[in-house]
Structures are given as structure tokens and as C-alpha cells.
């Protein structure tokens, strides 16, 4: 009888360990999915900016060349990207956006054009979607990190190399959504 009780206890521990491991795998897949969502939104945001670049090419050769260089040099973001990769991409994006904003200030007819206004609205939309995707990512990371830190889950997380994922932090100087002149 004692032998059956020990066997049942061992089976329960094995079942719990398998369930915990599978939960960690699900959480990591959710994190990868959340990063994929960010990647898709970042790509759409760059596409909108590329469209805006096309609209501005007629106004100033230097700014156009600068934008082309920034867009060509930007790194592609995927679901395998890190928080650092996304932050670097944001810096490149904001640099390109700064060039376009300065150009729009120099050329009021560009700033008033329908193409410019519609594209800036698209950039705003994608910027908001990137922000929302980051919040979803951070929520997913919170669930995962909390799960691997709590006992007895930590007994499974450590040996199977389930490690904490980093969070997106507020970018200095970017407390508010960008507002474009309309």
C-alpha cells in the first residue's frame, strides 16, 4: 500500500512538472507572438514613412537622400528581435520622422497636401498600434516572469533554462504620442 502511495505521489509530481514545463512553453510562444505583432506594426509604420518620403522627394534633394539612407540602413525587426532591437529601430524611425517634420515646416504646401496629411495619419495609427503591442508584450512577459519566479514553478524553470524576458521601458522624451501638424 505504501508503495502505491509513493508511486501516486511520483506520478503527480511528474504530471505537475510536465504541466509547468508546457505552461512555460506556451508563455514563451505568447511572448514570441507579441514580438511578432510589434514587428508587423513597426514594418507598417516604416512603410507609411516610406510613402511619405516619396511625397517629399520633390521638395528637397538633401532631405530625400538622408531619408533614403536612414530607411536603407534600418534593421529589419522580426519576432526574434529583442527589446534593444526595437528601441534602436525606434531611434532610426524618429530620426527619419524628424527630417520629414523639418521639411514639412520649410514647405507649407507639402504640409498642406493630402498625401502628407493622410500619410501622417497612417504614421499616427501605426505608432499607436506599436504602443499597444508593446503593452501586450509587457503583460505577456509579466505573466511569464512571474510564473518562472514562483515556487514550485522555479524548480522546473531553472533546470530547463526558462529565463526572464526584458520589458519595454518608456523612451526618454517620448512620454506622449507624437502629434503632427494637420
UniProtKB/TrEMBL annotation:
One short Pfam name that applies is: LemA
Membrane-crossing residue ranges in chain numbering: none
Keyword Glycosyltransferase present in the record's keywords: the answer is: no
**Where does it primarily localize?**
membrane
According to its UniProt record, where is this protein located?
Membrane
InterPro entries recorded = LemA-like_dom_sf, MamQ_LemA
How does this protein lie in the membrane? Single-pass membrane protein
Per UniProt, which keywords does this protein have? Membrane, Transmembrane, Transmembrane helix
Does this entry carry the keyword Signal? no
Q: What's the domain of life for this entry? A: Bacteria
List, alphabetically, the PANTHER family matched.
PROTEIN LEMA
Protein family: Belongs to the LemA family.
Name the chain's protein: LemA family protein
Amino acid at each position: 500500500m505504501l508503495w502505491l502511495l509513493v508511486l501516486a505521489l511520483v506520478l503527480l509530481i511528474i504530471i505537475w512538472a510536465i504541466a509547468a514545463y508546457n505552461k512555460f512553453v506556451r508563455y514563451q510562444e505568447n511572448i514570441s507572438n507579441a514580438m511578432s505583432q510589434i514587428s508587423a506594426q513597426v514594418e507598417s509604420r516604416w512603410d507609411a514613412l516610406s510613402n511619405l518620403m516619396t511625397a517629399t522627394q520633390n521638395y528637397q534633394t538633401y532631405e530625400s537622400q538622408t531619408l533614403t539612407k536612414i530607411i536603407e540602413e534600418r534593421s529589419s525587426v522580426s519576432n526574434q528581435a529583442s527589446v534593444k532591437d526595437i528601441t534602436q529601430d525606434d531611434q532610426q524611425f524618429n530620426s527619419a520622422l524628424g527630417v520629414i517634420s523639418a521639411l514639412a515646416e520649410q514647405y507649407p504646401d507639402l504640409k498642406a497636401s493630402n498625401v502628407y496629411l493622410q500619410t501622417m495619419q497612417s504614421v499616427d495609427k501605426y505608432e499607436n498600434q506599436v504602443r499597444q503591442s508593446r503593452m501586450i508584450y509587457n503583460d505577456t512577459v509579466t505573466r511569464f516572469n512571474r510564473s518562472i519566479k514562483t515556487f514550485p514553478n522555479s524548480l522546473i524553470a531553472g533546470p530547463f533554462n526558462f529565463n526572464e524576458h526584458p520589458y519595454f521601458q518608456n523612451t526618454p522624451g517620448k512620454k506622449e504620442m507624437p502629434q503632427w501638424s494637420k
